[in-house]
Amino acid sequence: MTEPEAITLEPCEPGRLTAEDLRSLFLFEKLTDEQLTWIAEHGCTQRVAGGGLVLREGDPAEQFFVLLTGTVALTRRVGQDDVQTVRTEQRGVYMGATTAYLRDDGVPQRYMASMRALSDSEFFTLSAADFGWLMREWFPMAIHLLEGLTLGMRSSQAVIGERQRLQALGALSAGLMHELNNPAAAASRATGALRQRVAGMRMKLGKLAAGKVAPDRLMQLLELQEEVIERAAKAPSLTAMQTADREDELGDWMDEHGVTGGWDVAPVFAQGGIDVDCLTEIQDRLASPELLDQAIHWIGYALETEQLMSDIEDATGRVSSLVNAAKQYSHVDRSAHQWIDVHTGLDSTLVMLAHKIGDGIRVVKDYDRTLPQIPVHPAELNQVWTNLIDNAVQAMSGAGTLTIRTYQEDERVVVSVGDSGPGVPDEIKKRVFEPFFTTKPVGEGTGLGLDISYRIVVNGHGGDLSLQSAPGDTRFLVRLPLSEPASA
Fold this sequence. Notes:
Elements: E1 13-14, H1 19-23, H2 33-42, E2 44-48, E3 53-55, E4 63-69, E5 72-78, E6 81-88, E7 94-96, E8 114-117, E9 121-127, H3 128-138, H4 140-210, H5 215-234, H6 240-256, H7 262-271, H8 276-286, H9 289-330, E10 338-340, H10 342-352, H11 354-357, E11 361-366, E12 374-376, H12 378-396, E13 400-409, E14 412-419, H13 426-429, H14 449-461, E15 464-470, E16 473-481
Parallel strand pairs: 11-13
Antiparallel strand pairs: 1-2, 2-9, 3-8, 4-7, 4-9, 5-6, 5-8, 10-12, 13-14, 14-16, 15-16
Helix pairs in contact: 4-9, 5-8, 5-9, 6-7, 7-9, 8-9, 9-10, 10-12, 12-14
């Protein structure tokens, strides 16, 4: 088992900051001289070299940190990867035991993230016990409010987040099952029809043999059958109107030449791309009016068998592509962090949401296929595409144009998800990324989708998520860096 990385903080140096020094930090600027003096006496400064680990996710939350100098990054562990959630060099930002003032209810508090110094950094630190004491003693009313807000938000997010995940999973599962059902049912129907056609071919072969067909004629018939099938495989596709005209021509020819049930056989030949000239060639090759009827039916069975096998191949291929899209979407058995082509995730998300998009919405994909691969967490990014596409579909109420565009802008890849809906009013634009804010009716939205997307793009990938909206043209623009954030 790998030993955990050591914490590299240098020993604490008490008394380095005065009350006036502390007042220059925005967190303490409104405190009294007496309060600042108490904090200066109970706190100390600590340093860590660039690249060093300051605190580790999951360890007991024993210290409250205020950044004085340097650049730090907070990360959360996801599977085998560390996902960067915050990167900052702002003097005075705080982290660590930030909720030490909450009643513990018997549950020990632990660091919710790891913090690493990206450059040589210095912190002012207080013990969790001292920070918790001063907050409860100096700001009792604020603590009651903060406790209610923190614990309430924690409970609400847990319940609503779980329900949202279940609803999203249910919607995706229903859509996937709907998409899978169509090709599966088509394959099942084709298999049943194929069984009947194979049985018919066996009976027809028996009749040919019983009719005392000469061996050389039978071999000729088999060769003719293979030639017709090969010709059908190479025949150009016909429009519905052309196919209907071809069926009429073939049916008339068969009636004129005494082929029984010609109007039942003609559609098979027409679908296979066979024309009247081919039938005439079959007649000339056979040189036997008595054999023509049975030969036409036997070749028809062979053609229909090939068509049914093609239908089964297409249906099973569709099932396979859907399963592959689902795997791409969920990134099963893959590490969280990868260099990927952004279009792969967009395409798999569109497949997963095809049932929800429906026939009334036209999907336009304006992709720049020359874009380089980018470093992302694919499963998280697919959640962003799901939220943005789902919002666009709902905004259009089942009718309109969904436009997915990709392009490069400076050192970033940009993904634009646009819709032709009514647009977002100006007074709402500033609030769309706020948690729990939604314009949907009660029970139809949690208001977390865009907030989660924003945090994934901005905090998790160092990118940017913005909104541009006008009636008939609303776009969410996701900007993702071409390279990983540099670290010391």
